[in-house]
Amino acid sequence: MLSRMNPNADHAATRVREASASGCQFASDNYAGICPEALHAMADANRGHVRSYGEDEWTRRACDMLRERFETDCEVFFVFNGTAANALAVATLCKPFHGVICHESAHLETDECGAPEFFSSGSKVLLARGDHGKVSLADVERLVRQRADIHYPKPHALSITQSTELGTVYSVEEIREVGLLAKALHLRLHMDGARLANAVATLNVPLKDITWKAGVDVVCLGGAKNGGALGEAVVFFDRHLAEEFDFRCKQAGQLASKMRFLSAQWLGLLENDVWLRNAQRANACARLLAEQLQTVPGLRILFPCQANAVFVDMPPALADALRRRGWHFYTFIGNAARFMCAWNTTEADIAALVADFHACASTHP
Prior knowledge:
It is built from 15 helices and eleven strands. The chain is an alpha/beta fold. The longest helix is centred in the C-terminal third of the chain and has 20 residues, at 274-293. It is globular.
């Protein structure tokens, strides 16, 4: 029926299948499969009967390796996804009558379906403005100082995203400034690090320089977007804050019985710095895409390409034409289209996308 109504439907459907099968899509780094090293580590953990709920050697080794990478004696927990990581971390930092400040585009506000408020039993998310997805320090201070009466939620935590939802990266100095302000305002500092690996790959600095040494109290370290199967690591640099966090995870349904399959993949990612190479690959592909898209007439790159995301302002007709050719990407923030590169994106993927951009732009100016 579709082919009779639209002679191009079969061709478009074929392109969709081919794009999906080859991994040639740019909607999200969540679409990517598991990198071989993480998959091998999970298979290695699939042996016989092993103690459950994190009392296994893979979990112990993964926690120790993260402590080595962060170069501090941190407390580490593994949960199933980023929503749980962020929401439970915020719930630990805030009492129900507290507020947590984040950027207005942050996942904490736009994509967690109220989970931070739910798991904290009512802590309010307070929105700060700021260019390129980074919180304005002046606006954070405004939110803290604008009211101190009992009728207003008391700001008690500040959350930043690294790299940001707009594909930009806080510099080492910027995070230090955020940390100093948080300390001066008596705010606990949380970092949504779903793409922290991409920020490290850009900045080329040790993890410690943009986390605990800069004043971060807890970071939610992403694995699923960087070659892992599922699961995030919640890392507390202030061990006092981690007290009873295991109970919070259990109550929230985030304590895995076969924890080794969450934690083992981190061994595959961390050994030989696979996590960093994966991020470097994704970042390099994003930079290449941003450079080549500048040759397409009628497009505008909206934000600096500092991690693995490229945001493009283009006519809706052009976006529709690309989708008909089988390309997957999200459109939000006005008419902006987001193109995400992953650990397994290739130069050939970029070339094919850019070629279709040129072809579609010539017929949909």
